[in-house]
Amino acid sequence: MPRPSSSLLLALLGSVSSAIGCTIPPGTLPNSIADKFSIVVQNPKIPTVHNKIMNFRANGDDEHLVLRPAGVVTNDVLYLENGRLITRNIHAVIDLEYNDQDNTTKMFMTERDEPAALFTPEYFCDPDTDKLQIRLKLASRETVPPVKGGQIGIRLAVDTYEFRYSPPNNPKINDEFMPIDMVIFRDGISPTGTATPPTSTTKPPGTTTIPTSTKAPTGTPTFPAEVGNYDFVYCLAEPADGRALTSANTAADDMTLEKCAAFCAAYPYFGTEWSRECFCGNEPVQGSNLAPLTECNYACSGDPTQACGGSRRLSLYNNPNLTGPQQPANFAGRFA
Fold first, then answer.
1. Is residue 36 in some structural domain?
2. Is the full-model pTM beyond 0.85?
3. CA-based angle 203:209:214, to the nearest 5?
């Protein structure tokens, strides 16, 4: 006998729970949900985020995950496949914008081969109505080896509430990280009725449109020979299993080489990537290699005349006056 879909189970069990209270059914749900859905986040102890809808905010070919009213409405465009949260050809990953103050990392959607976020669907009682619903519980972050468990939460970044990941037993976590449950709903109907999204996806007048392409504009961006005290090295390919510069990183929609240099002022090396990302380090890690300059031709999001790397490619700069390891051996001249 075929198994009912998750949406049918919710409809049937929800009507029962309204009469007898929420009871979690035995057994487990499949880790693939083909019926497309949206996400509402819940934590009744934190009204700032409770019953708010997850939206997308485009960044190049990626989609950053933010809370409404920021971003673009995401009515029923997500699905789960073998634990991966997917829309179109991009999936949820946990990577970039690591914050060493609270040991958290950004979760966003991309087609790049970053550490995936794997989720397990499970039944869950609505904290407001006691009705049965389905939440997506984080199962693992697919690093090598995978990190099991952890917590997805929300943190304010400038003026936007974004999705972050905290590893298990995180000793640095603070009140700026707001833990949440990610609950699925469909057809504009919220599990609680308090977070119903509008039916229109038309942007209101005056909404700023964020570019959806990171391709270089007309006129190829250039590689300044000097940025402050830093000298241009070359285009650097990330290692296959990690990052070339690992000490610190940030990202911004107005990234420039000067902005990245200022952020990395304490480090001998900085590099920009994917138009808006900035990485710092004492030296590139083993497995990093020079790449042709044509692979670092993405324009900086804050200055289209400057080149800010590419897909897993860094526009690499070095300050020879800083203490610490200097120019990597055998780098010079390999692509001259």
1. yes
2. no
3. 140
